From TrEMBL:
Chief place where the protein resides: other
GO CC list: cell envelope
Protein name, UniProt field: Thioredoxin
Alphabetical GO biological process terms: cytochrome complex assembly
Organismal lineage: Bacteria, Pseudomonadati, Planctomycetota, Planctomycetia, Pirellulales
PROSITE patterns reported for this sequence: THIOREDOXIN_2 (PS51352)
InterPro entries in alphabetical order: Redoxin (IPR013740), Thioredoxin-like_sf (IPR036249), Thioredoxin_domain (IPR013766), Thioredoxin_ResA/DsbE_sf (IPR050553)
Subcellular locations according to the entry: Cell envelope
Leader peptide range in chain numbering: 1-21
Domain Thioredoxin as annotated: residue spans: 324-488
Keyword Transcription regulation annotated: no
Keywords: Cytochrome c-type biogenesis, Disulfide bond, Redox-active center, Signal
Record GO terms (molecular function): oxidoreductase activity
C-alpha cells in the first residue's frame, strides 16, 4: 500500500485521546487537499505501522506506558514514519506520569524535547516547544534528575533566541514563557540570577510596549513576567508593578477580553491570599475588582473568575471571625463521642495547652499534617500539652481485610464509625484523642472553619492564641514556636 506521508500525519491527528500530542504541519488534511507529490517522495508504509497510534493510546488507557514505549520503539524502526512518530514520546511520557514513574516519564520527555528542538524554526514551533518545557518543568520535580528540565529549558531558550533576529516580536511570547519557567527553577538555588533573567525580559517587553509594535500579547506576557517576579521574590513593590502594568494595558486596550480575563485571574489570586491575612484589605480589593469586571461578565472566562472572586467572601468573613477569636475564650466543645481515646474527658484538658485539629479521614492535606502533630505530642506531651482531633461523621467503616477506612453503601452506626476513625489513626501511628461532633452541630462554624486542616491553639487558660489553616512546613513551624512559647510562659 503506497501512501503519502501527509496521510500518516493525518492519522496521528485523529482525536483518539485528550493527552495525544499532534505533530506539526498538515494534519487534518484530506487526500484531495494535498498537493501533487513526485513519485520518489511516496513511501511504502505497512498497515500495522499505521495502526501504531491507536495501539499506543489503547495501551495508555489500560495503564501500560512501558508497553506503549516498546511499541513506539519498534514502529520507529520503519524509516517511513519514524520522524513523525517521535511526537508520541510526549504522549507516552504523560502515561508514565499517571503511573507515577517519573524517571521513565523524563526519558520520554527527553526524546520529545529533542524532537521539538530539531524542528523548531518558526514562532509557532517555538510556542509548542515552550508548552512542552513548561510541562516538563512540573513533572521533572518528581524525578531523580530534576536538573534535566533546567538543561532542556536552557536549550529551548537558546533555540528561540536564534529565531529572535528574524521574528523580534513574534518570539516574545514563547521566549517569555520559557524564561518564566527557567527563572522559577533557578530561583531555588540562585535568586540573583533568576532576578536578572526576568528583569532583562521585562525591560525588553516594556521597550516594545512603548512602541507601535506593542500588542495585547506583549502586555499579557509582560504581566505574566511581573506576576512571576512578585510570586518568587515577594518584593514590596511586586504587586504594585503588576497593577501598574494592568492599568497601562487596559488603557491601551480597554475592550480586550483577554487582558480582562488575565486581570480577573490575578485579582482572584491576590484576594485569595489576602483573605487569610488581611480581611479588610481583601474586602476592599474584592469590591474594586467586582466593579471593574462586571461590565465584562459576558465573557465566559471573566464570568467564571468573577464568580470565584465573589465566593471568597465567606473565607474572608471566616478570617475576620478567626482574628476576633485571638485572645478570647475558645468556644465550648460539642461532643457526640470520642475516638482513639482511653477514658479521656474535657475536664482532663483543663490547664493544658491544647491544639484542636479539625480534620477528616478523606482529607489528604489533613493526613499530611500527621507527622507534625505526632512530633508536637512527643516533644511537648510531658509538659502539659495535648493534641485533640475534631471531625464529623462521614459514613466510614473499617475494612479489616484491606486495613483501610472505606466509605461504602452501608450506613454505619456512630459507634462503628468512631471505631473506624480510631483504627485509621492507629494505622498512622497517631495516638491523640479525637472528638466526633454531632451531625447537627455549629462547632465548626463557631471555630471559623471553612476548610481543613484547621488548627486552633488554646493556652492553659482556655483562650485561643493561634489559628492556622492548611498543611505545610510554614504552618507547622509557626505552631511549634507558639506551643513552645505558651508552655514556657506557664512554667
Amino acid at each position: 500500500m503506497r501512501l503519502r506521508m501527509f496521510l500518516v500525519i493525518g492519522l496521528l491527528s485523529a482525536p483518539l485521546s485528550p493527552v495525544f500530542v499532534f505533530p506539526a504541519a498538515t494534519y487534518g488534511q484530506e487526500a484531495t487537499d494535498a498537493p501533487d507529490t513526485p513519485a520518489e517522495e511516496v513511501a511504502e508504509v505497512e498497515p500495522e505501522v499505521l495502526a501504531v497510534p491507536d495501539e499506543i493510546l489503547q495501551l495508555l488507557k489500560e495503564g501500560k506506558p512501558a508497553k506503549a514505549a516498546e511499541v513506539l520503539q519498534t514502529a520507529m524502526e520503519s524509516d517511513a514514519v519514524a520522524e513523525e512518530f517521535k511526537a508520541l514520546h510526549q504522549t507516552i511520557a504523560i502515561g508514565f506520569v499517571r503511573a507515577r514513574q517519573y524517571d521513565k516519564a523524563m526519558e520520554q520527555f527527553g526524546a520529545a524535547v529533542e524532537f521539538e528542538l530539531a524542528r523548531t524554526d518558526s514562532p509557532t514551533d517555538a510556542q509548542r516547544l515552550a508548552s512542552l518545557i513548561r510541562q516538563v518543568s512540573v513533572y521533572g520535580l518528581h524525578a531523580t534528575q530534576p536538573d534535566l528540565a533546567a538543561e532542556w529549558a536552557d536549550n529551548a531558550i537558546g533555540k528561540v533566541r536564534a529565531l529572535e533576529a528574524e521574528h523580534p516580536i513574534e518570539t516574545q511570547t514563547p521566549l517569555s514563557r520559557l524564561i518564566q519557567v527557567r527563572a522559577s527553577m533557578l530561583a531555588r538555588d540562585d535568586e540573583d540570577a533568576a532576578r536578572e533573567m526576568l528583569a532583562k525580559q521585562v525591560a525588553k517587553l516594556e521597550d516594545i510596549n512603548a512602541t507601535e509594535d506593542r500588542s495585547e500579547k506583549t502586555y499579557v506576557e509582560l504581566i505574566n513576567l511581573l506576576t512571576t517576579q512578585a510570586r518568587l521574590f515577594k518584593d514590596d513593590d511586586g504587586q504594585d508593578r503588576v497593577a501598574s502594568a494592568f492599568e497601562e494595558a487596559l488603557e491601551a486596550y480597554p475592550e480586550s477580553t483577554v487582558l480582562m480575563a488575565q486581570y480577573a485571574s490575578n485579582e482572584y489570586s491576590v484576594i485569595s491570599g489576602l483573605a487569610r491575612a488581611n480581611p479588610d484589605e481583601a474586602i476592599e480589593r474584592m469590591e474594586a475588582a467586582v466593579a471593574k469586571l462586571t461590565p465584562f461578565e459576558e465573557n465566559r472566562g471573566v464570568e467564571l473568575t468573577l464568580r470565584r472572586i465573589k465566593s471568597l467572601e465567606s473565607r474572608i468573613e471566616s478570617t475576620r471571625k478567626q482574628l476576633e477569636m485571638i485572645g478570647q475564650p475558645a468556644p465550648s466543645l460539642d461532643i457526640d463521642g470520642w475516638a482513639n481515646a482511653d477514658g479521656i474527658s474535657v475536664e482532663d484538658l483543663e490547664g493544658k495547652v491544647v491544639l484542636y485539629d479539625f480534620w477528616a479521614i478523606w482529607c489528604g492535606p489533613c493526613i499530611a499534617t500527621f507527622p507534625h502533630l505526632r512530633e508536637f505530642r512527643e516533644e511537648f506531651g510531658e509538659q502539659g500539652f495535648e493534641v485533640v482531633g475534631i471531625t464529623r461523621y462521614y459514613g466510614y467503616t473499617w475494612d479489616e481485610e484491606s486495613g483501610k477506612a472505606v466509605n461504602g453503601s452501608d450506613d454505619p452506626t456512630p459507634e462503628e464509625e468512631r471505631e473506624a476513625i480510631a483504627k485509621f489513626l492507629q494505622s498512622k501511628d497517631m495516638k491523640h484523642p479525637t472528638i466526633v461532633t454531632p451531625k447537627e452541630t455549629e462547632l465548626q462554624s463557631n471555630y471559623g472553619v471553612t476548610g481543613i486542616p484547621h488548627a486552633v491553639l488554646v493556652d492553659r487558660e482556655g483562650n485561643v492564641q493561634m489559628i492556622k489553616v492548611g498543611s505545610g512546613q510554614a504552618n507547622a513551624d509557626a505552631l511549634h514556636a507558639k506551643i513552645k512559647e505558651l508552655l514556657e510562659e506557664a512554667s
